[in-house]
């Protein structure tokens, strides 16, 4: 249902707007939690769970799209990363809540968070890009002036830039099919789908969510389970926080390569930790070394993902695509990630039975290296460029 929600998020956010889509997501979230809270039998609980998954998929990308459409050129990447930081710290908070709050009250926490968003939603602005594409020029200008502040003098210039890109797209391709078959769309769309798919393969989904129970069982007698579980959200939160400062110093391509390098080293350390554990014969020095390598590796995978790999990939739909294609690019990217993850979950048990953890994590090293090569060769330099400059750059490519 998360996959279905991700696919529907694009046409829905284009139809009703980004802000209204996020409001609908939280209405569905609170409603699904209430259904599960009062559910007296399995069919009702299943209905609430499916609705919760659908709303989770529905809300994955509209926030990123809205952020990219209200930000300035220089802050476009930083604000997208800030979005991921809030998401990461939210996950860390939920780990803590899950430890402190009794299970029967966890659904009340979900309802409270969604209702809090709904109460604060009047302070969220609507997308100027979406308003312009729907002929609401005055309202779009009001939104831009509201988010830029009274001392900002470039509102008219921004509006002209957005309108020029929209006009060029409409003149070049009168239909959606015509636009989606042009090289201006296919090149960035292919980059986005490929890199989101790579997240499904080497991101935290498979190593943590699938390998998690079995890999933790392997080290469970050496490292407390709670210690391992806290390393995961801490690494992700610290990585995304660091990416906020890294983004000011490095271009996106360099930032991605930095994050990928950390993940390569971390996956290698996990692989080595299993090799040491397998051949150490319980000698205390080697056991301690394997524990250290394993914990550094688990922390490092999520750290590298947050610091560069994931933080850069999630900015790409807002960077590379034209205003009318941002939502479909984000939805397709999330869909690609989930499809690859689902395939990996089916295939990896058989690979694991043949290769074991040491070689399996070396396949992660190889896959991450391929992603880094792909980015080095194909990702265009969009840093500090306007929408029209990015579109011109893609035409040259």
Features:
397 residues; 0% strand; 83% helix; globular; single chain; Growth Hormone, Chain: A; mainly alpha; GTP Cyclohydrolase I, Chain A, domain 1
Number of extended strands:
0
Share of β-strand residues: under 5%
CATH fold node name of the domain at 180-396 = Growth Hormone, Chain: A
Report, as a whole number of angstroms, the end-to-end distance. 37 Å
CATH C-level label of the domain at 180-396: Mainly Alpha
How many H/I helical runs?
A: 18
Unreliable residue stretches: none
Assembly state = single chain
Fourth-tier CATH superfamily name of the domain at 180-396: MFS general substrate transporter like domains
CATH architecture of the domain at 180-396: Up-down Bundle
- The radius of gyration over CA amounts to 22 Å
N-to-C SSE string, H for helix and E for strand: HHHHHHHHHHHHHHHHHH
Give the overall shape, derived from the CA principal axes: globular
Secondary structure category: mainly alpha
Q: pLDDT average, as an integer?
A: 79
Largest sheet: none
State the helical fraction: over 70%
Description:
With 397 residues, this protein is mainly alpha-helical. The longest helix has 53 residues, at 326-378. Helix 1 (2-16) crosses helix 17, helix 2 packs antiparallel against helix 3 (42-58) and helix 12 packs across helix 17 (326-378). It is globular and about 70 Å long. The chain has helices at 2-16, 18-38, 42-58, 62-70, 76-100, 106-120, 128-133, 137-148, 155-172, 176-180, 183-202, 205-219, 225-249, 252-279, 284-313, 316-320, 326-378, 387-396. It is built from 18 helices and no strands. The two termini are 37 Å apart. Among the domains are: 127-172, GTP Cyclohydrolase I, Chain A, domain 1, CATH 1.10.286; 180-396, MFS general substrate transporter like domains (Growth Hormone, Chain: A, Up-down Bundle), CATH 1.20.1250.20.
């Amino acid at each position: 249902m998360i996959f279905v929600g991700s696919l529907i998020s694009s046409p829905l956010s284009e139809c009703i707007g980004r802000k209204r889509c996020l409001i609908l997501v939280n209405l569905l979230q609170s409603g699904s939690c209430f259904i599960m809270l009062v559910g007296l039998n399995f069919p009702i609980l299943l209905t609430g769970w499916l609705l919760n998954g659908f709303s989770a998929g529905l809300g994955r990308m509209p926030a990123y799209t809205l952020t990219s459409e209200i930000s300035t050129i220089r802050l476009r990447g930083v604000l997208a990363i800030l979005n991921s930081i809030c998401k990461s710290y939210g996950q860390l908070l939920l780990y803590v809540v899950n430890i402190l709050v009794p299970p029967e009250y966890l659904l009340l926490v979900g309802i409270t968070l969604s209702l809090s968003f709904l109460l604060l939603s009047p302070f969220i602005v609507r997308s100027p890009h979406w308003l312009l594409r729907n002929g609401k020029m005055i309202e779009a200008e009001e939104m831009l002036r509201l988010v830029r502040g009274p001392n900002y003098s470039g509102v008219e210039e921004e509006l002209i830039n957005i309108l020029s890109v929209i006009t060029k797209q409409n003149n070049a391709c009168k239909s959606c099919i015509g636009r989606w078959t042009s090289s201006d769309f296919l090149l960035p769309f292919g980059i986005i789908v490929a890199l989101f798919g790579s997240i499904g393969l080497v991101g935290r989904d498979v190593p943590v969510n699938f390998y998690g129970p079995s890999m933790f069982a392997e080290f469970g007698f050496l490292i407390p389970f709670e210690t391992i579980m806290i390393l995961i959200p801490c690494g992700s939160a610290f990585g995304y926080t660091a990416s906020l400062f890294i983004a000011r110093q490095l271009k996106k391509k360099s930032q991605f390569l930095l994050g990928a390098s950390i993940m390569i080293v971390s996956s290698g350390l996990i692989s080595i930790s299993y090799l040491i554990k397998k051949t150490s014969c319980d000698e205390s020095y080697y056991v301690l070394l394997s524990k250290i390598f394993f914990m550094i590796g688990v922390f490092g995978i999520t750290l590298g993902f947050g610091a560069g790999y994931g933080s850069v990939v999630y900015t790409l739909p807002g960077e590379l695509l034209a205003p009318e294609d941002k939502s479909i690019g984000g939805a397709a990217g999330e869909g690609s990630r989930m499809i690859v993850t689902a395939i990996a979950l089916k295939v990896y048990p058989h690979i694991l039975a043949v290769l074991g953890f040491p070689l399996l994590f070396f396949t992660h090293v190889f896959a991450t290296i391929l992603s880094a090569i792909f980015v080095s060769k194909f990702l265009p330099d969009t840093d500090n460029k306007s929408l029209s400059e990015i579109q011109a750059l893609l035409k040259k490519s």
